[in-house]
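Re: export button greyed out
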Amino acid sequence: EDQVTQSPEALRLQEGESSSLNCSYTVSGLRGLFWYRQDPGKGPEFLFTLYSAGEEKEKERLKATLTKKESFLHITAPKPEDSATYLCAVQEQRNRDDKIIFGKGTRLHILP
Amino acid sequence: DSGVTQTPKHLITATGQRVTLRCSPRSGDLSVYWYQQSLDQGLQFLIQYYNGEERAKGNILERFSAQQFPDLHSELNLSSLELGDSALYFCASSVAAGQGYEQYFGPGTRLTVT
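Workaround output, generated via the alternate export path:
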């Protein structure tokens, strides 16, 4: 069965302490891998799309990378405002199906 | 602000009832998606419409239905509601279908079934 697994489930870091979140996936052909940030009670906020292995994208303190089986979201020198749940999602390479499969997310808490 | 709007923000209703959730996509977006988010299941894809036609179906119950209108807004109808239907319902939109277009999410509707 197709699956998206994120680890760790939760992560507590001190302000300025860099780390990485992992997203591993098993789909029969990847059309795109997406990273979202979600604050409590709000809709997911789009961060990045990655399409092929070796691709990297950056935005402020966040950098997303992609291999054939997993993606990493690197957080450099995080600040308390980076605290949120980070969601990974994949879209399969199918003829007409744009189904998106979300992981359960990593809850990130940055301590001041 | 993503540009996707959803109404109502909160909905409290009783078991057995029927409700309609409404979504307006970002200006220019043709594709609309519906998701359900509960604490134990995470974000679950329900259904996608593209330019008025159903394009993809996920884990949508037979008691649920959706449609997209000519002005591209969409409605999700939930009937014979059960306690387990209590969740956050999100709508998302993308500019087109296929090719890994990113989806932009609305603020959600929190449904509570009592």
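Chain B has no helices and eleven strands. The button fix ships in the next patch.
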